[in-house]
Design goal:
alpha+beta; OB fold (Dihydrolipoamide Acetyltransferase, E2P); about 50% helix
Length: about 200
C-alpha cells in the first residue's frame, strides 16, 4: 500500500493531481482543502496517501495534512460513505469546521454540505461524534506555559514549522500549545515531534 507520495507536480485540477515519481505519473484524487495548498506545477510536492483497492482498479487519494487524512478515514468508516463521497465532504467544508460539526453531532451543519443527505448526516453525527471529540480533545489545551523569552522563541518557531508543512493555523496553534504543556524537556525538536503526534491523531 502507498501511504505517502513525494515527487514533481506535473498536473493539477480541483479533483485530482498527477505526481511524477521516478518517471511514473501517479494520479491522485484530492479534496479542495489539499488542492488550495498545492505548489505550482513542476515543483516538488508530498501528499499523505490512502490507497483504495478494488477488483478492477487501484485508486489513490491524497491529503496535505495527517489531520485531513484522519478525518477521511473516519468518514469512510461510516456505512454508506465511500472514498469519493468522503473527498466530496472534505471539499465542501474545511477540516477544522468539519471536525467541529462532527464533535457536536451537528447533523444540520453536515447536511448543508453538497452531496450529504439527511440520513448520511445523521449517521456521521451519531457514529463519529466520540471519535471527533477525542481528536479535538488532543488538539485543545489550556494556554501554553510560556515562561521565558526562549520558550516564546521555541513556540513561535514550532508554530511556523507546522504552518510551513501546510497545517491549518488553528489546528497548528492548538497542537503546539498542547505540546508545550506536555513536554518535559522544552526544545524545538521535542515540541515539533509532540505537536505532529497530536495532529496525526
Amino acid at each position: 500500500m502507498i501511504a505517502h507520495l513525494d515527487g514533481i507536480l506535473i498536473q493539477k485540477t480541483t479533483q485530482s493531481v498527477i505526481i511524477d515519481n521516478g518517471g511514473i505519473g501517479y494520479e491522485v484524487f484530492v479534496p479542495l482543502s489539499t488542492f488550495y495548498a498545492l505548489p505550482d506545477r513542476d515543483e516538488r510536492v508530498g501528499l499523505h496517501i490512502y490507497t483504495h483497492v478494488r477488483e478492477d482498479a487501484l485508486i489513490l487519494f491524497g491529503f496535505n495534512t495527517p489531520l485531513e487524512k484522519g478525518i477521511f478515514l473516519m468518514l469512510i468508516s461510516v456505512s454508506g460513505i465511500g472514498p469519493k463521497l468522503a473527498i466530496n465532504i472534505l471539499s465542501g467544508i474545511g477540516p477544522d469546521d468539519l471536525l467541529e460539526a462532527m464533535a457536536h453531532g451537528d447533523a444540520l451543519r453536515l447536511q448543508s454540505i453538497p452531496g450529504v443527505g439527511k440520513k448520511t448526516a445523521e449517521r456521521i453525527a451519531l457514529e463519529l461524534k466520540d471519535k471527533a471529540l477525542r481528536v479535538r480533545g488532543d488538539l485543545e489545551a489550556p494556554p501554553a506555559k510560556i515562561v521565558t523569552d526562549e520558550d516564546k522563541r521555541i513556540f513561535d518557531d514550532a508554530l511556523s514549522a507546522l504552518l510551513n508543512l501546510g497545517y491549518p493555523p488553528k489546528s497548528a496553534q492548538r497542537a503546539v500549545e498542547t505540546a508545550l504543556n506536555r513536554v518535559k524537556d522544552v526544545s524545538l525538536e521535542n515540541l515539533i515531534k509532540e505537536a505532529l503526534r497530536l495532529l496525526a491523531g
